[in-house]
Design brief:
Elements: E1 6-9, E2 13-22, E3 25-30, E4 37-43, E5 46-52, H1 54-71, H2 74-88
Antiparallel strand pairs: 1-2, 2-3, 3-4, 4-5
């Protein structure tokens, strides 16, 4: 899956989707600097952004990697592992 998703944040402008964390939860970062991270939560009341530190964002992605490995989803695991390396290393 090689689709790119962007959201327009009211304060920080264009955000780039890093990955899906859970159902209705996605991790986004600022498009150019990739220094500010946001957890985008979608629900009945609409879209809500929660700011995250880089360490917290990394932890969320690493937890998702562990979950995918346990579930045996090798293709999605490999794709997320590349995203992890590109974003956090």
């Amino acid at each position: 899956m090689n689709t790119e998703t962007y959201l327009n944040h009211p304060t920080f402008g264009l955000l780039y989707r890093v990955c899906l964390i859970e159902q209705n939860q996605e991790l986004f970062t600022t498009l150019y600097a990739q220094r500010l991270f946001f957890l985008a939560l979608s629900g009945l009341e609409g879209l809500r952004f929660e700011p995250l530190t880089r360490a917290d964002a990394r932890l969320l992605v690493e937890n998702r990697l562990r979950l995918l490995r346990r579930m045996g989803q090798t293709q999605e695991f490999a794709e997320l592992q590349l995203i992890h390396k590109r974003t956090f290393q």
